[in-house]
Amino acid sequence: MTEIIGWVSSFILFLTVSRQIYKQWKAGTSEGVSIGLFIGQTAASLGFAVYSWLVWNPVFIFTNTVMVLNGLVGFFISLYLKKHESLQTESST
Q1: Mean pLDDT computed over 12-37
Q2: Which residues are CB-contacts of 3 (< 8 A; sequence separation ≥ 6)?
C-alpha cells in the first residue's frame, strides 16, 4: 500500500506540472512565467534525484528524474517563447 501511495502521488505531480507546461506552450506566451522558476525547480529536482538514489528509493528516483526533465522542458519552452515574443515586439516597432 505504501508503494501505491508513492506511485500515485508521483503520477499526480507529473500530470500537474506537465499540464501547466503544455498550457504555456499552447498559449504561445511566457507572460508571468519566470525562467528562474524552472532553473530552481530543475536544480532542486536534480538534488532530490541524487539523494533518492543514495538512499535507494525507486519512487523518488523516478519522480525526481522526471521532474528534472519537466523543468528542462519548461525552461526551454520559456526561453523559446520569450525570444519569440521579443522578436514580435521588435518587428512591430
Answers
A1: 87
A2: 59
Range of the domain at 60: 36-93
Q: What crossing angle do the helices spanning 35-54 and 58-91 adopt, rounded to 10°? A: 160
Q: How large is the average pLDDT for residues 83-93?
A: 76
Number of domains in the chain: 1
- DSSP 8-state secondary structure symbol assigned to residue 37: H
Q: Is the dihedral of CA 68, 50, 7, 13 positive or negative?
A: negative
Kindly state whether residue 1 falls inside one of the protein's structural domains: no
Torsion, Cα of 52, 56, 60, 65 (10° steps): 70
Q: Give the model confidence (pLDDT) of 26-80 as tens digits.
A: 988 888 788 888 999 999 999 999 999 999 999 999 999 999 999 999 999 999 9
Q: Over the range 71-91, which residues count as b (16 or more CB within 10 Å of their CB) and which as e?
A: bbbbbebbeebeeeeeeeeee
